[in-house]
Amino acid sequence: MNIEPDMTRAMKTFSRVTRYGHPAGRIMYREGSQLNWQRIERLLESDFGGCIGILRETSYGPYLETATVSREVEVGLQKFLRDEYEFIDDVCAGTRVAEYLHLKYDFLNLKTVLKENYFNTGNPDMGTDLGSIDIERIRSSLEKPHAGSLPDYWEGVIQDIKRKLIEYGEEPHILDAYSDKLYLERRLETADAERSRHLVNFSRAGIDVANLKIIIRGRWVNRGGDYFRKVLAEGGRLDPKLLADLGTEPRERLITTMLAGKYGRMLSKVLRADEKKARLDELDRATDLYLLEEMERFKRVTVGPERIIKYMIRREVEVGLIRIILMGKLHKLSAASIEERLTPAYLSGEA
Amino acid sequence: MVNALAVIGKSWGGLTGQQWGVLGAALAFIGGGMGSAMGITYISNVASGILVEDPEKFGTLLPLIAIPGTQGIYGLITGILVTIMFDLKTIPGQTGIMIFFACLPVAFVCFISAVFQGLTAASAAGMVARRTEELGKALVLPALVETYAVFALILTIYLFTVIK
After folding, report:
1. A97-132 pLDDT, tens digit each
2. CA-CA distance, B100 to B16, in Å (whole number)?
3. A-interface mutation test, from B60, B61, B130, B134, most A Cβ less than 10 A away
4. Model ipTM value
5. Do B46 and A91 count as a contact with CB atoms less than 8 A apart?
6. pTM of the predicted protein model
7. Domains along chain B with CATH numbers
8. Are A64 and B161 within 8 A, CB to CB?
9. How far apart are CA B77 and CA B29, in angstroms?
10. Where are the extended beta strands (E) located within chain A?
11. Which of B51, B53, B122 is opposite residue A17, by nearest beta carbon?
12. Does the beta-carbon distance from A24 to B53 stay under 8 Å?
């Protein structure tokens, strides 16, 4: 991993501004339309119809104004995200920013198609149109390998996953974990290609967090060190080999080591809870919170890929938040009960 | 000191007083002009993005776009002052080299400050993009960077009067 020294990066500021100035300007304007805490509070206090009325004042209005059932809410929010991604594709053409953002969905589509093929468990509706590659292209590539329907990288990824499934065993959790490993490593490569220190650090933190989740969850379902060594991603700040060894250590030692480390604060609540009572969503919440806090470092960059990526990640989080609120309202949940499911960090930063 | 300068003035590249004076004037404008061009490029790129989303903001953004341009004007003023205040054809080498050094504050400070002012203005444009009424505050930030370009111009003019 080659991180440029500060002076060299400073000299490249001019080219960064000329490359990202225009998209950053457009993003700056759109940031003003992101939801703030006051608006979220109004949403929590309103009924479903009231929520739609409040959202009508925002950029979500045209997408949700006719929604009355959960399916329509989902379709509206999905369309909103798709339009946001089209906007990013348009303004960031010729850079790796769009690739960085699309990767998650491309891998999601790939996993869906592979699960259909291997386990007949994939649901054709599970795919997303937020990826850079159409899911049908992935399907046809699996039917006719080396037909050139996919870029070389993706052909390679498919072959790699197929090999690992043969080697490690054809299990859905292996497919999931190994695909996630490839996704995180590719994301780090993309960040490195953008020569952005903040983006590289964020991607590394993402790898560490994912690896720690694998260790903690793996212990809950009694996975061994061999499994950890196969699926832990490379490139984070924590050495995956040491992590894999730690995963098989007695619980007390694991807790002491993790709490003393860089991610101790993030994991303290989850690790201190009884292993059998610990909830998966608490772990997810703690790690999401941590990554959103990490992302706040992007604020230091006025013009650059960081601003664009932060905007899109916040949009995705915002969409998730609106989804939780609207679904809660449709199911007549109380405001307090819905609020419990929201993370305050969702609204950090610009809120 | 003066003797040493005279020796340097005559021997270093064999430049005359007039040539040193012109070099200083040119450098002052090159520094200020290049800095301004880069600073305006920074803020213009960002402003063009904001204007695509909301063309109504052109008037609000214009002061921010224009503000890094002042350093180029300071460079021009310095260059013109060199020709107005000194009789370049007759000045000795030691005076020429002093004029040259007196031009350096504008040449360097204006270059650096214009570039950073462009970056600061780009950040400030983000404030205006979200809330037009924040223009006042947004203008203060790049204006603070301007202070040092003004100080450089004042120093250069003061040095000219001392040399004269």
Report:
1. 999 999 999 999 999 998 888 887 756 667 788 888
2. 12
3. B130
4. 0.79
5. no
6. 0.83
7. 15-162 (1.20.120.610)
8. no
9. 8
10. none
11. B122
12. no
